[in-house]
Fold each of these.
Amino acid sequence: MEITNFWVYFAARPLFWIVVTLIAFLLATALNRKVGGSALLHPVLVAMVLIMGLLQLSGTDYDTYFEGAQFIHFLLGPATVALAVPLFDHRERIRRLLVPLVVACISGSLTAVVSTVFIGQLLGASDALLLSLAPKSVTSPIAIGIADQIGGYPSLAAGLALMTGVIGCLLAPLVFKVLKTRSETAIGFSLGLSAHGFGTAYAMQRSTLTGAFAGLAMGLTGVLSSLLIPLVVRLMGLG
């Protein structure tokens, strides 16, 4: 009985869920290092599963959890803005490659949404599922906003975006090897475009140059996708 009262008391404290989130991420990071940095056990993915399991076991609703952990959510904004630092360091190289980068980003964004919706339609997916799948190749906060705008399920869109990031990081080394891609700018930009936040974190582990172009691709893809996806889904008979 005393243990139950102890849990009820601390589970209601905002600081508790911040601590739980940090501990889950530290455990997930340690596990990821143990397995050699595999994207299949990415710290974000593992921490998410651990927290979901704890919420399920304890019967805690998401609103209660978010009330405590929202400070970490707030830091997502400054963390994203911090990606501008490596972009500034490599601004001259980015300026020289701006036109091909924009063309690559537009073609990549269109390919991602058109191929996804087309394959989903062939497999008989519902319109709501297709509208949730459409923004899978952009970072989760933007995917949530796009899905909500076009009539999809924001929570499903966020989960699909995370899965896309994991799969992108798993397949990227093989793709680069097959295509014999050695350019750090090409590797970084393709990781940010196809695997958004996960790809950018992976690129940062390679070099600041790779990370800079991954961050640039992630930002450009998010902006362009928010403009292109609503138009594409309407042209394909959705929304």
Amino acid sequence: MTSRNPQSAEARRQLIEFISSEAVFHGDFTLTSGKKATYYVDLRKVSLDHRVAPLIGQVMLDLIAEVPEVAAVGGMTMGADPIATAVLHQGAARGLAYDAFVVRKEPKDHGRGKQVEGPDVAGKRVIVLEDTSTTGGSPLKAIEALRAVGAEVAAVAVVVDRDTCAREVIEAAGVPYLAAIGLKDLGLS
């Protein structure tokens, strides 16, 4: 992702710096896919940080800016929640009207029994957000839940793409895949 706006380019540079210094861990890790890795990107270390959340919101707004008529953003709880909130707040600061939603792993077994929480997304174009992508499984599960309530999924947008085939999985499901930061940006490729 490149930006013509110098402020956007600076927000992206700062975000990459924060992620590299505070959210990339080296060692032996087992990923969601079961595969082994020598590094782990733990975006929650920074997505819930007051210095970094606004940067995430700015960078993700720039990433999704070209997707027309989007009413709401969100994804599977827990990883997508701070990303969606950052987009909601930074969007409001720019005069944009993005709502946020949360997709539960399973529908509630009490109350209204909902799996998708937040403003009604039926008949609306939405973007599924993800903090980091590994297998594409979480966005696919969110897409399924959103389609079940009548939302139109316009794209999946991730903050950090681990280059582990999530793009291919999402695109094979017929959904465009957008990534703000790649492994090369973090010096991990």
Amino acid sequence: MHIVIMGCGRVGSTLAHILEDSGHSVAIIDRDPQAFRRLRAGFRGRRVTGIGFDRDVLEEAGIESAAAYVAVSSGDNSNIISARVARETFGVDNVVARIYDSRRAEVYQRLGIPTVATVRWTADQILRRVLPEGAEPLWRDPTGVVTLAEVAYNSAWIGTRTSTLEDAAGARVAFVNRMGEAVLPKRDTVLQEGDILHVIAADTDMDRINKVLSAAPEEESH
């Protein structure tokens, strides 16, 4: 695929290298030509100097053949404007914008522009390590209806089948991270100590799911 990135900072340059190493073609845009010094010497992608929401600049970067557009400059307004231009003017389906203001990010998410709220995400990651409870949303669909979340659970669930957990919580276990590897659960998959649980459910159900999983499983009556 061809992917266009706006912003050649640490995030943009890292993404460019990862995507190129994965076999994709990449074009990266930045208004400061000195920013391209972050790219390794062997980088084969296009370096385009300019503003990421300028149509001519986007066309030079190959936006018309792009499968995805990523806006990770240091400016919220620039990121969201360029993401909207990529989607609405050039018809790029897969767009994502980095937003520092989490309140804005939630608004744009509801408008169908996937966002990553940098400050909030970093804070959430730290809190998950300091206070490992509740759910951390990892992805929401553009309408905000469906959420994929990493969910903390009571240790009493260890040894329980994921299918039993699904029935109790009313949620689908998307996958389990086990010793750094993703495991797709089967009917007989059992939750082990150290497993990191990821569920997918309606966003409005997450509070209820957290409540169920934070408590010990109810004993079956005979």
